[in-house]
What does this fold into?
Amino acid sequence: MREGGIVKLYTLTAFPALAHREILVKVPRMKPYVKLDESKMSDGTVFSLHSHDGKFYLKYNGFDLMSTALTFSEELLAEVGCAALLEGRESRPAHPRILIGGLGLGFTLKRTLELVGRPATVEVAELMPPLIEWNRTFLVEHNGPLLEDPRTKITQGDLFDILSAKGKGSYDALLLDIDNTPDDLITSGNARLYSAGFLAKVRDVITPKGCVAYWLSEPAPKFKKCLVKAGFHVDEHAAKPHEKSKRARHCIYVCRKR
It folds into this structure.
């Protein structure tokens, strides 16, 4: 039986020498998840931030979306999407311009700033205002004041509207981590991000040598065909959730103009 974190184990008759003796074993108490804040979107989607054992977890509708325990694939998105923009590379423009679609817990932004050096402009399009605030408050102990970096520009709004207002060649790289896949959307309004018309716009706003990198929870062959049809050459990169993971279940598509 369990009494205040102590389990009493009683021996069986198979061990007569220990019969009727009580053995006390201390059982560690499980650390609870603590809800720090919550926000409800217009379509009913509920986002919430939780802490547990020194880590933070972003949930939507009660399901884990991302955490500070698993950041490898978010950082890899920056590494493969900004490969031509690294500080010191001949291919690096004098002033790289990058747009990150989806702030998340800030790890793609953090890695991008580490890679591209100065000068640079790294714009982040984030739909949910509370997530921006959570990065400034709760998450600052993990990533520091990323949003206060002079290279960082936070634009609150829908990625569709933000990119639709941009002209040709506005960005050297787009790093998009919006949904799990086009068939597994985080919010229902994101469906228009994968239309043929919007993919043509995405192609239009990157520079001739620029790229767009999509983070996906798993390979999406139908979407890859749509990207090719939209005029992209697509390289597929397997992405582990953690550096030491045995299996790379996530995927990043890096797309360049054909």
